[in-house]
Design goal:
The structure is a single chain. The protein contains 15 helices and 14 strands. Helix 1 packs antiparallel against helix 2, helix 13 packs antiparallel against helix 14 and helix 13 packs parallel to helix 15. 36% of the residues are buried. Strands 11-6-1-2-3-12 form a six-stranded mixed beta sheet, with helices on both faces. A two-stranded antiparallel ribbon has the order 4-5. Strands 7-10 form a two-stranded antiparallel ribbon. Among the domains are: 101 residues; 167 residues, no CATH class. It is elongated, with a radius of gyration of 35 Å. It is α+β, with helices and mostly antiparallel strands and 607 residues long. The N terminus is likely disordered. The longest helix has 48 residues.
Amino acid sequence: MSYRPVGRMIRYLTRKGRADLKKEQIFENKEERDSEQQGSMDKRLDELYGEGGASAAAEAPKKKGKKNGSSGRKRAGTILLGALGIVLALLIVGAGYLVWILNRPQDLFVEATSTATEEPAKETMEPAFDLSGFATVAPEPTESALTTENEPDMTEEPIQTPLATAVSTVAPSATPTAVPTTEPTAEPTAEPVKDNIVNIMLLGIDAFENGTTTSGTEPHTDVMMVVAVNFDKDTVDLITLPRDIFTTAPGLHGFYKLNGVFNAGGGMKDMESGFALTCRAAEIWLGGISIPYYYAVDFKAVVDVVNAIGGIDYDVDQPFTAYRLAGNATTSGKHYDKGMHHLDGNAVLQYLRIRHAAGGLDSDRTARQRRMMVAIFNKLKTEGKLSQIPALINAASSGIYTNTTLSQTAALANYAMTKIDADQIRTRSIYGDLWYQHYFKYIFVDQQNRVDIIKEVYGIDAEPIGLNTPQYENWIHDIGFLAMKHVRQPEKVFKEIEKLKEQGKTFTDAQIAAYAACYQAYTNLDEAFRVDSERLQKAYVDPTMTEAQIKAMEKEIKTELKALNAEVKKTTLALRDGCGIHLKLEWEVGTRWFVDQDINEVIVAFG
């Protein structure tokens, strides 16, 4: 329930009562008019035929009309009183509801849980044929396949292998398995979150009003901050997530920076989906704790909102120039030295965006963002303006996006006004080291810092994330991408075969046998890649594992995947050529892996 339905009901009933009254008045006036006309007719009859010339039947309508007029007035009054009674009742209910939500705002929200909704695992393609007549035996690696010095030939020439030979390793069919996921194994504990906490994601989009950006080709969510509101302890934690975290996008294959997950989910073309996917990805970094809500702003909204509160007095920690934003460019602006200044909306925006000065670290910028958030809160609190937050949101004509309701926003504003002071807001950052690897700068988080923050804020024990390590990024680039590439090629052939089946083509037993061999090789590689990826993720953050043990594991996995890659390539080419499918397949991973949709399902221009 929200304010809007109550207001709409009140307005509807008021309008309805007025309409009914108007109808009765019209009816009453009509009866009076008819009565007057009847009286005139009686007078005329008396003149023509003498006194009493009007028939008795003519008197009936006159009496009836008077009765109906009186009845109409009574009905109008009854309806009006009834409508007013309903309105009064709704006002009482609405007032009670308002008191309730202002005193128990937590009831309007879903509490954070330690078992965030998991994206379904991407499944293998269902086989196009009934493979129950085939059994499978995982192919034994040949001596040549195990030779690590010589990589398998990755040319596109078809392998001239008879179809009968191509299925020589195939025996009973395997049940389709889930396509291996490269998503980090955050392993949220079953232990519930200790307190009544609501998580809200704050997102800042590097975008102008027209959807363009200051850098790159598409806007990203360059500011990501989780607001954890603890209704039991009356505290708020602001947890910053670095934009350059090396991560995955739940439900998609591939690797992204955290600020690019918004684009993978839909970006400026489908912002709602982009925000939702960003929240799902951020949940990984909170140990699987859910983030159901978000508020997002672009450049213009920041300027408009700060201007709406009259700017802010702020102690600037470093000199900067507040360049003016114009379209998708900047113009000259006012310069601010270090010290206390009154900042308008544009100055606040430019101050928050400083990164290349004073060390150029993103951690410096996120620290300024958290301090500014607290400063703005303190201004609104001391001036008694927190209750005006819904109006401030409306002050920004565009550029503010949320999946919360007006009731929820109002309840949060009132809660902050009555329960939270600036010293009850704690600021935290999941930080890490910035590495330049394979064309991009990534943040690999400090695992202990992340685990500690989750314990302190939510009271649960989280596991380290092995995917977010330089070792795993190196392995996935050098070995894993090639396996991912080999998984995608048979899928392309399978899709072509499905199209041919839909067109009515029949397949020979030899072609179906070749399909079974290829499908089995495909699922073998899928499963091995998933298992091996998870083994390495755990090993890279296991303090008991020695470097020698990890190297031995990497070598073993490389040998295994190399053999499975070779089998997939052999059986896929045999199936393609045996079915007469003209389709170019790509087996190599280029240097620009990030624009290869066999690797990254959605192409994102990394920022």
